[in-house]
Amino acid sequence: MRTEPEPAELAAIPPSAWRARLERLFARDAGPALELIATTEHIFAPWGTYDLRTVPHWHSARAVIIGDAAHATSPSSGQGASMAIEDAVTLARCLRDIPESATALQSYQRLRRDRVERVVQQGRRNGSGKAIGAIVRDAMLPLVLRRFATPQSQAWMFDHRIDFDAPVDVGPVGQTDRS
């Protein structure tokens, strides 16, 4: 069973070895990768990216979390900052429209949870491509993207809008946070 190297193991590999490896990996790349590698002053060692468990409650009586603290997304999703901004706007709306803070915080979580979990799941799928052989991936990806990654299929993620002026609906009475 293959295990990922520990951070100390990765840190022990000298930058020159990482540079050489990157040069080998991008030797046949048509883009500017080799030039960027050659002109980059310092090559940073890689690190592992891990999925974090779902946080069941995004608030307590005295605190609330938003963004990556509540729902870290994979770097491959490219949505971390967007999710944090959406959280902030939704939280502001809830605090503006719902007089009781506990209900406002529950509403914020209820309004955001399904969307952010979907984005986190999409990022996980995007990042799990390492399991596919690089040759097959590189050959198939352009075809798949042209066929399935259309503006219409990605609209749910990139065309999301929050109407700040719309009042917040508290939702069903007695609805609680997911645990």
TrEMBL record:
Residues in the signal sequence: none
Q: Which GO terms describe its molecular function?
A: monooxygenase activity
Lineage, broadest ranks: Bacteria, Bacillati, Actinomycetota, Actinomycetes, Mycobacteriales
UniProtKB keywords: Monooxygenase, Oxidoreductase
Origin organism of this chain? Skermania pinensis
Protein name, entry field: FAD-dependent monooxygenase
Q: What residues does the FAD-binding domain cover?
A: 53-122
